[in-house]
C-alpha cells in the first residue's frame, strides 16, 4: 500500500522556546560554529520549510538549540488508498447500467 510522508519544520518553535525570536539572534550562533549564511538565507530557513538542508547546518542548529534532528523535523506518514493498475477493470455497478422502469399513466 502506498504511503504519503510529510514533515513539519519546527525551527521557529524551538528558537522561541529558547528565547530567540529574530534572525539576528540566530546568526551569531551560526557564525561562531563556522556556518556563514546571509541574513536572507537564515530568514528563509527560519520562516519557511527548507526543501534541502546540508548536514553541517542541521548539526549546527541542533547544537545551538540543544535538540535532535527529530525535534527539528516532525514527520508523519499515512497510508493512501490503493490505485488501480493500468488496464485493470473497475468493479461494475450493475444498478447504474440497468435501465429505469417507465411508468405509464393513461391520458385524460
UniProtKB/TrEMBL annotation:
This protein's name: HTH cro/C1-type domain-containing protein
Domain HTH cro/C1-type: 10-76
Superkingdom classification of source: Bacteria
Organism: Streptomyces osmaniensis
Amino acid at each position: 500500500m502506498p504511503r504519503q510522508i510529510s514533515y513539519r519544520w519546527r525551527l521557529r518553535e524551538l528558537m522561541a522556546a529558547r528565547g530567540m525570536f529574530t534572525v539576528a539572534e540566530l546568526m551569531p550562533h551560526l557564525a561562531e560554529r563556522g556556518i556563514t549564511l546571509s541574513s536572507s538565507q537564515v530568514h528563509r530557513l527560519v520562516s519557511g520549510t527548507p526543501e534541502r538542508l546540508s548536514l553541517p547546518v542541521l548539526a549546527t542548529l541542533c547544537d545551538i538549540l540543544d535538540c535532535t534532528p527529530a525535534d527539528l523535523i516532525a514527520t508523519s506518514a499515512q497510508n493512501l488508498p490503493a490505485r488501480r493498475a493500468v488496464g485493470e477493470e473497475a468493479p461494475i455497478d450493475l444498478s447504474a447500467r440497468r435501465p429505469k422502469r417507465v411508468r405509464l399513466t393513461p391520458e385524460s
